Amino acid sequence: MSLPNFLVEYLKKQYSDENVEKILKGYTEKRKVTFRVNTLKSDVSKIEKILKENNIKYEKVKWSEEAFILNDAKEEDIKKLDIYKNGEIYLQSLSSMLPPIILNPKEGADLLDMAAAPGGKTTQMAALTNNKAHITACEMNNIRIEKLKYNVEKQGASCVYIMQKDSRQIDDFFSFDQILLDAPCSGSGTLNINSENLEKYFTEKLIEKSVKSQYTLLKKAIKILKKGQEMVYSTCSILFQENEEIISRVMKETNLEIIPITFQGIEELPTLPTSIKGCLCVCPNELYEGFFIAKIKKL
């Protein structure tokens, strides 16, 4: 199976030959199973003990105590364990654990997760704040909201209020201390060359549709973010159109500042260059999905 020609052209326009090669190699990799410990229900030492008892080999990352990489176990092996069944761990890609960590949600804060389902990042923020924040999780799709409700309950994220709504339609009288906008996107960072029907579902039309909703969502996020406060914009796309271009457009229309992303262990991430200084773009490989993250302050 090969990648759509238009995608290869986009990548060549945006990145050096060396980086395009890295991305294309990343598209062929089979990603290892990763999860995070749900600290609302368990702790790292207990999970390590259970993995050892089950002869499951794992690695850790520098940037999160709760993140685990499994060397040879499959998802099915993990789903058989009680720690999975009772919500002590949550299967989640490493890249998607980054936006909540970068947002650094605060206890007591009013938080908004604008595209929350299936709830990985929502429940991670609940854990990061020890269930002491007020998290509004928005999802407009009927089926996806059921998945969100299920995960929030299973993870014991009692500080989460679920709202079935298109985030673009949130009333402007709402205001939030911190916002996570993990925007719907083309998924250009998560592609696998061996996927069936890749050319059918990954289209230029999908990118155009994504760009429209990303722009509207970011405009809305900025409107309802309190002055002087911060939000995170992220996508699992590595295309300039869905990332820096959206942010640049909104920055021309509103008074914003990019907060440079730094955290302990950032140096071990496989990164791609970004055209906006201080943003983070993760290159797909056997551990990470391709991902873009920006931290934005409303002035």
Describe, in plain words, how this protein is organized in 3D.
- This protein is α/β, with parallel strands linked by helices.
- It has a domain at 94-298: Vaccinia Virus protein VP39 (Rossmann fold, 3-Layer(aba) Sandwich), CATH 3.40.50.
- 35% of the residues lie in helices and 21% in strands.
- It is built from eleven helices and 13 strands.
- The strands form two sheets. Strands 5, 6, 7, 8, 9, 10, 11, 12 and 13 form a nine-stranded mixed β-sheet that branches. Strands 2-3-1-4 form a four-stranded antiparallel β-sheet, covered by helices on one side.
- Strand 5 (110-113), helix 7 (120-128) and strand 6 form a beta-alpha-beta unit.
- Helix 6 crosses helix 7 and helix 10 (204-224) runs parallel beside helix 11 (244-253).
- The model has no long low-confidence stretch (mean pLDDT 97).
Labels describing this entry:
single chain; 299 residues; alpha/beta; Rossmann fold; 11 helices; 13 strands; 35% helix; globular
